[in-house]
Amino acid sequence: MMNAVCNTEVLESRIASQNENTCEKPQLSDAEIMRRVRDIRSNWSLSERKARREEADRRFQNLVDTLFAEAA
After folding, report:
1. CA–CA separation, 24 vs 13, rounded Å?
2. Please, are residues 44 and 52 in contact by the beta-carbon 8 Å criterion?
3. Who's near 36: CB < 8 A, 6+ residues apart?
4. Under 8 Å CB-to-CB from 44, ≥6 apart: which residues?
5. Per-residue pLDDT for the chain (72 aa), expressed as one digit of tens each?
6. Predicted pLDDT at 20
7. What are phi and psi of 11, to 5 degrees?
8. DSSP string, the chain
9. What are the two backbone dihedrals, phi and then psi, of residue 58, each rounded to the nearest 5 degrees?
């Protein structure tokens, strides 16, 4: 049997730190994020788009393989 010990000072310090970090960063809307992504992608060459698509496909296939391997 395992016992958990919670140090409230550490916990409160971490929560305060997370709140400070969250408050410092501006919250972007979904529309703003999509605009920025579109701007970045518009600068990609055709060969870069192809390379990125191939890499994404490879990573997705690795994910699917891993998920099904764990299920077996």
Report:
1. 17
2. yes
3. 28
4. 52
5. 455 555 666 667 766 666 666 567 889 999 999 999 999 999 999 999 999 999 999 999 999 999 999 777
6. 63
7. -60, -45
8. -------HHHHHHHHHHHHHHHHHSPPPPHHHHHHHHHHHHHT--HHHHHHHHHHHHHHHHHHHHHHHHHH-
9. -65, -45
| pTM check: above 0.90 | no
pLDDT for position 1: 44
Determine the length of the chain.
Answer: 72
CA distance 19 to 7: 19
- Sequence letter at residue 39: D
Give the tokens for residue 31: 């529309």
